[in-house]
Amino acid sequence: MSDKLKMSVSGALKNKSGMKVVYVTFEDEGRRAEGELPECRITRNSGFTKQEIEALQQYMAGQKDTIMKMAQSVNPMKAFLSGGDKSL
Fold first, then answer.
1. What's the mean pLDDT when you consider all of the chain?
2. What's the CA gap between 50 and 25, in Å, rounded?
3. Residue 63, phi then psi, degrees to nearest 5
4. What is the pLDDT of residue 15?
5. Residue 20 contacts by C-beta under 8 Å, 6 or more apart in sequence?
6. DSSP string covering 7-19, please?
7. How many domains does the chain fold into?
8. What are the φ and ψ backbone dihedral angles of 48, each rounded to 5 degrees?
9. What is the pTM of this model?
10. What pLDDT band is residue 84 in, cutting at 50, 70 and 90?
11. Residue 1: inside a domain, yes or no?
12. Strand 86-87 relative to strand 41-46: parallel, antiparallel, unpaired?
């Protein structure tokens, strides 16, 4: 993976089942992967290898508490108006 991997975190939302989830997006040189917490799984992938996806899932699992705290600090209205999520 590139040293320029960007991670964006959504605020906490409810999915179709009513479960609280946080969406995490990883972007790197035209590639993109989207994942969900608390499951710590990548749900969409465009360009990352299987090994890279496994590494991203392990990262989400290892940083789950930190990512969830980041999601709590996201102001949904501010994120909507600025057109983006909270990014690292």
1. 88
2. 16
3. -110, 20
4. 85
5. 12, 13, 14, 38
6. EEEPPPEE-TTS-
7. 1
8. -85, 145
9. 0.81
10. low
11. no
12. unpaired
Does residue 15 lie in a domain region? yes
Residue partners of 12: CB distance under 8 A and separation at least 6:
20, 21, 22, 68, 71, 72, 74
**Alpha carbons within 13 A on the beta-carbon side of 81:** 5
**Residue 1: partners with Cβ closer than 8 Å, 6 or more residues away:** 28, 48, 52, 55
Model pLDDT for residues 22-38, shown as the tens digit of each residue = 999 999 989 999 999 99
Tokens at 86, concatenated: 């909270």
Supply the angle between the helices 50-62 and 64-72 in degrees, to the nearest 10. Answer: 70
Q: Domain of residue 30: give its range.
A: 6-87
